[in-house]
Amino acid sequence: MFAKIIIDQDAKALDKVFEYIVPDNLDIVVGMRVYVPFGSRVLQGFVIGLDEHCEYDESKLKKIISKIDDFPAIKEEMLALMQFMAKKNHLKLASILRLFLPSEMREGKVKELFETYYTLNDKNESKIQKNAKKQLEIVDFLTNNGGRASSSQLSQYGYGAIKALTEKGVLTKEKIEVKRKPFVLSTQSKRVVLNSSQKNAVNTITENKTYLLNGVTGSGKTEVYMHLIERALSQGKNPIMLVPEISLTPQIMSNFKARFGDAVALLHSGLSAGERFDEWKRLFSGEARIAIGARSAIFAPVENLGMIIIDEEHEQSYISESNPRFDTHDVAQFRARYNGCPLVLGSATPSIESYEKAKQGQYQLVELPVRANGRELPKIQIIDMMSEIRTGNSGIFSNQLLADLANVINHKKQAMLFINRRGYSSFQRCRDCGYIAKCLDCDVSLVYHREDNRLKCHYCGKQYKVLDRCPKCGSEHIKQGAVGTEQVVSKLKEYFPDVKVLRMDNDTTSTKNAHQKILSDFRNSLPGILVGTQMIAKGHDFENVVLVGIIDADQSLYQADYRSTERTFQLITQVSGRAGRSEDEGKVVLQTYSPRHYVYKFASNYDYKGFFRKEENIRQTSQFPPFTRILRILFSDHDENYVRELLKVCYTEIEKLKEQYGDEIIYLDAMKSPIKRIQNKYRYQIMMRLKLDKADEIEEKVFEIVDNASKTSVFFEINPQNLS
Question: Does 299 lie in the same domain as 247?
Fold first, then answer.
């Protein structure tokens, strides 16, 4: 027997299938991980096929050394998915297979956790001497506690007493696997009666196709999801549900745990190694039936898949921007087709691409037009910050926002303030010569963090001393840049010293269970203010939040990205929806320096369809996705000269395609990446914009050109979410 094996190494030369002999003493099945000899090394590999025949000279083949696992860790569906992703995203096979397993499992850093348990077999006290008090106490404890306990529970009586009882046959000792479980906020299950729109959604989503569930904020999409999952479970099917941010998982998990108990497993990067492994194993074995998590949960080892739900489907976090690069939507589409089950994309602000597909009939549109509680969406008041400056207010907060915050506090309610920029200020600049403090390894400005009194790079994580004088001209006139979450919190504490002010961003949520703690603290703070980045913009449901303040609505508006207005509209709508979700009327204060921009007109009226028509027209006229396709080829290496030369070689060949395909290639250019260097790797790119008819064909030829020329890291991105 011969095995087809992919070596678990991220090297271009090894990105192919190798053949090995299966020894007679090894029971090998497809999907297993094995150790194989490779040159002078022993490497891990994945068995992706078995055959009685070999294409090569058998005498030159080596034998598999041993199995890593006694079970096939990679299931048949995932092998098919591997082939799809390799073709679709031009990824290395090994890098795809790694997505299917907990990283710690691959690295051998985590194993099953076992604990020793003792069971009471014989209560005959004649076997125990009367002066053996500890032994008698153990028997009494077990008698009163179900006859079984762990070694840690019995440790108070001493190991000697436990050992003596075991040797006498009074106790039976056994090792039992113990599952590590992530911390979940406790809640009670609330069964909600669906309104007519929710019922219609549940009754409509039945067929094996893609549905776009477009529901306003607070329309009860989560309850619809729960009913859909209940139906799938009743049919013997197992669902996957994705959320865009780890910060959303505590609330989602608490609700789902209350409804479905231990059938729910949680998968995301914030879990410990042991927790992640155990949750994966519970899904793999079928002990857990519902997988919930962030992007990586789309690869959950769920068999008999009956439903996939992607909540807040418009979020760019569903696009992987690190190697391997992929779109979660594509993976979900494949798994839904493979298993013949519905795929539900939910959002109050669907991506332009998704809504266009619904318009064209590729997706079925299902709408939830009103809030579940029947209340109106909060009113949005637009504040012209230029007018504030003209009247003498140059601070972070408008007079209106300060007045509204004071009112919230007086009534012992809550407010949420949104600014999508962490740190105290976005940069430090010399007022005299213009010098800006930058990272030595990345071509980006450093962000000032006041709490740590450090400058930090948000790309590589390096930290630097704060500037007290300019290293270029010696001036002491150092200016701070744009406001971040940390500075907003600092100013709020000056205005409202007696109020609980919490901050939620990447800096405050880096430790385990930090999300849960912040959200729990805020829920219990009356009055209270929560300041945060996009972590707070969606999914959260706080009944006492009556005010939302958007500090700098323009931040995402003027980025060099064709999606900038779309993202601005989405953020405003999503964060606005956090207010007024119970009986109290909600209000939103939106601060902008461009109050007449069309995006604010549509956002203030929650007019998604109007915004879509406007954006659709602009995209169609200017030939941008979804009416065309953007292909980005990013070259990266420590040697800038090599990257530059590689770029030239590839660009010259791709130019020939431009001559061949004419106006099918709308745009072609080679350039430095907007961020030229990250982690001391130089970055250059080729940008292409393609008409849809020939896009697949052109992409294949581009892949071939780059593969033939490149010996370094090259990343391909289709309609990239971030051009930096």
Answer: yes
- Among 104, 128, 154, the domain boundary falls at 104
Domains contained in the chain, number:
6
| Alpha carbon distance 50, 54 (integer Å) | 10
571 and 596 inside one domain? yes
Same domain, 154 and 209: no
Give Cα separations from 555 to 71, 424, 426, 558, 671 (angstroms). 50, 15, 12, 7, 25
pLDDT computed for residue 710 by the predictor = 81
Q: What is the CA radius of gyration of the chain?
A: 29
Q: What is the pLDDT of residue 481?
A: 79
- Average the pLDDT over 646-658 and give the result: 95
- pTM assigned to the model: 0.87
Q: What is the CATH number of the domain that holds 673?
A: 3.30.70.100
Q: What is the mean pLDDT of the chain?
A: 91
CA distances from 637 to 93, 643, 648 (A): 21, 6, 15
- CA 366-369-372 angle, 5° bins: 105
User: Which domain-ending residue is among 80, 104, 128?
Assistant: 104
Sequence-distant (6+) residues with CB within 8 A of 25 are: none
State the Cα–Cα distance between residues 296 and 267, nearest whole angstrom: 7
Kindly state the tokens that stand for 79.
């092998």
The answer on pLDDT for 122 being more than 90 is no
Contact 110, 271 (CB under 8 A): no
Please report whether residue 387 resides in a domain: yes
- Same domain for 391 and 461? no
Containing structural domain, residue 57: 2-104
Rounded to 10 degrees, the C-alpha dihedral 265/212/316/698 comes to 120
CB-based contacts of 697: which residues, under 8 Å, 6+ apart?
none
What tokens does 30 get?
Answer: 């497809």
168 neighbors 176 (Cβ within 8 angstroms): no
Which phi and psi angles does 463 have, rounded to 5°?
-120, 150
Q: Which residue, among 208, 195, 193, has the nearest Cα to 344 in the 3D structure?
A: 208
pLDDT of the residue at 126: 66
* CATH number of the CATH domain containing 569: 3.40.50.300
> Same domain, yes or no, for 97 and 56?
yes
Contact status, residue 67 vs residue 34, Cβ threshold 8 Å: yes
Per-residue pLDDT tens over the stretch 18-31? 999 999 999 999 99
